[in-house]
Every structure is written in C-alpha cells, then in structure tokens.
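Re: the pair you flagged

First of the two:
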Amino acid sequence: MSRLRVTALALGVVLLLAGWALAQTDDRTRVFDAPLDRIWTVTRSTLRSLGWGIDKEDRAAGWLRTDSRRTEGEDFGVYATGVKHRLRVLFTNLPDGRTQVTIERHVWKEERILWMDKGKDLSIPDHRMEREILDAIGATL
C-alpha cells in the first residue's frame, strides 16, 4: 500500500472519530444505551408529559415533530403576533443496541393579519431546552 493511501486512510479514520466525538458533545444530541423501540416510546411519553403534542411522526424514517408552541405574543383570531417554536426529534439506531437522539428546535417570529401570515426564522443562542428534554428522557430510562 502506498504511503499516500495510508495517510488518506488515517485521515479518514481521524475525521470519522472527530465527527463522532462532536456528535457526543453537541447539546442537542445524546446517545442512550437502549434499543430504538424503547427510546421511541420513552421520548413520546416524555414530550407529552412536558406538554408537547405530537404533530407528525415517521417511525420507519426515525423522526417525529411536535406541535408548535407560542413562547411570547398574543393571538386574537384574525390578528396574531409573537414567537413560536417546535421540535423535531431524530432517532438513529447505532450498533450494540444503542440509540442516538437529536433534538432540533425551530424558532420563528410570526405575524398574521387576516389570512396573511408572515414568518421570520430566529437564531437560537443556547440549547438549554434541548438538553433538559434529553435529560428527562435519560431520567425516564
């Protein structure tokens, strides 16, 4: 094997391990030592206990999305303004019966006048909410 191939292979392994380490240190991702079916059930139960409704889910693809919740603002029927957020939870089946769970929170500012909706995505400065939900899933296991 040529020296260039060995170097490229070593670099590939290092990048793979670095990516795995980053996934572990991301506040929005956690690996649980339980099978996907158990994690799916616990996650749905935990979200419901925290007041989140489930909007859509695709167990075969490994994701679920919650209903949106208003964090600030008011809704007067034909006029509404404020900030909303919703969660998308991704499940990845890992070797040795472990499951990776990633929570993506989408936050946006919304304004509705009559039937005209305007929305603007907002950045999320911290991921405290995602950490708290992952902690609650871990505590339930």
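Second of the two:
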Amino acid sequence: MATYTPGLKVVGQIRHRVRRILPIAGNVLVKEGDRVNAEQVVAETYMPGDVTPINLSNILSITANEVKGSLLKTEGEQVEPGEVLARTKGIFGLFKNEYRTKVGGTIESASAVTGQVILRGKPIPVQVRAYLSGTVVEVLPNEGVVVEADVSLIQGIFGVGGEAFGPLALSCREPSERLDAGQITAEHKGKIVIGGGRMTGAAVRQGVKVGAAALVSGGIDDQDLKEILGYDLGVAVTGSEKIGLTLIVTEGFGEIAMAERTFRLLASRNGAPAAVSGATQIRAGVLRPEIAIPIQNVGAAGVRDEAALDSTLRVGANVRIIRDPHFGVIGKVAGLPHELTTLESGSKARVLEVAVDGAQRIIVPRANVELIET
C-alpha cells in the first residue's frame, strides 16, 4: 500500500498542541502545568516604536553642525506633540526660529552630517494569547509556550483573517444550505457562525455589521472574496487581513456544500466555545485554517494522539478529490488497483476508485486525492 501525508483533519476527538511564540524576545507570563483559557495572554513583549525623521537643518535654516545645539532636550528624552523641539540662537538673541514637533516620541539621535533628528515612537505592545483552553506543557524562556488540549478539530481549505474566539452558532439546517445575510442576526455578535454551502458576500458584510467573530461555511465565490478584501488575493499566505472577522471555507470556491461529516460534527458542538484561525499557507510548510473546540473531562484513554493517526491510504479510508473535474467530492476508497492505468491525457499513473454516496464510483489518479482524518 502507498503511504500519503494526511490531508484535512475532521476529527471529533484529538489531543492538539499549539506553539505560541513572540516575534521577538519578551516575557512569558505562565509556567509549565498552568491551566489557561483561550483568550488568556501567555506572553508579551514590546516592539520598537515607529521612526520619524525630522530635517531640522532645512526647517530652521541652520547647518547640520548646529542641529544638536538647537535642541531643547537631549538624546533619550521624551517630547510630546506640539512641544518645542528645537530653537535657534538667533542674531544677538533676536530673530530666533523654533520648531514644534507634530509627533511625540523619544529623541533617538541627532546627526551632524545630515542635519536630521530621529524621533522614536512609543514601544508597541505585542501580546500572545493561549489560543487553546488547555494546559501549558512546555515553556520556551523569553519566547513563548506550548499549549495542549483535547479538542474537536476541523481544518478548512482556505481562510482569511487572524485568530478569533467565541461560541459556535449553527445558522444553516443542512450542509448544502447557502449562508446569506438573512441568516445572520444581532444574536450572532461575538459568535462563530456555522453555515452550510456557499457563503455570500452579503453574509460577510452582515457578519461584520453585527460583530460576528467568524463565519465558517462550505464555499465562497472568488468574486465575492475579491470585493470583501478590496483586491485580488494572489499571495500564498493569509491570516493578517483586517476585514472585521475571520472567514473559513471548508471545501473550496463556488457553490460547494460543506461535507456532511464536517457539518454534523460542528452541529453536534453547537454552542460550545471555540477558537478559529484563518491563516492559510499553500506553499512549502502547509498551514490550514482551523476550528478547535475544546473537550472537557476527557480521559486519556479516549483521546487519539495526533502522532498516532493512520496516514496509510487503504480501502475504506475517507478521501477528498482535490483536482477537477471532481474537485471537492468526498468519498471512501473502494479499490486500489496495482497496475498502472492510462489516463485521458495519455499518461500512465496509479489510480484508485472512490465510492461516492455508497454507489457511484469515480476513478482518479492517487495524486488527486487527500486523506481526511476521522
């Protein structure tokens, strides 16, 4: 049998770990063994503030050598917006020029070569949250932590927006039902709204309007996505978009219903608090958008460890077809012929048979499917 890297996870119960790392060295606020909730700050640091260059030589009509002497404060001191930063000596104490800074900050340097003064803005606080409600299993000094929790885990095909938190709110009754604006109300404020089929652009705008934390559905039209973002998304990494909420698509682009198993799993956890991330990377080091729903009071014997998941393609395994003309179709492996098969293109490849809806069988190249972990 051939061995494949597992594809999307749609798992009712798994022990999941996440690394929560600061962009630069800082302070870790928890210790190993601590219980944390999803929105708890576990590490923090300060990024250097923005730099503002001010050419005092030109502004005050003095030489670069005179800039330092014109400053009313020394390097390292703080100035506020509107405060006089520099004043010339004038002629016989008269005809003095002065400059009031438009921005505040710390005087970082004054150059006798360029005549510029550099103001450094206030440090920018950066906080990292736990993301999972679970246990700190490892502390990385000055960097961050590793958090572990027993969760229901659903990975999507594509997402935009960063991390969001809130209770799941089922908004569609069937996995094929379109998620539209009328199904999102003021009651969905702060919630992760679960749709069915395609989510419309109107639904996304309504979600932003009512303050929903995230929208999760089977598909989205690429034109709707372009209008929502204001540009054509052509990059391979997402997660930093600021659109007012997080979007996760579980199946693909277009009129695609959410997979029955995914929908039923989400529906079974309706109302449960969850964490979502829209970050997606489709190049090397694949990163999937995900919904992680903590499970409380689960014994160790009942939890499947991620490292122990079966990654072998076999008869009966659940797979998703990831190439046209059957893109998005989900079924079970019904056969794994050993001999090479001639494809329509004339090339030869190993294929498999996918049983769809229990009866129909589709023959596709093995490279055109990905495993769905259950």
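The CA atoms of residues 134 and 149 lie 4 Å apart.

-B.
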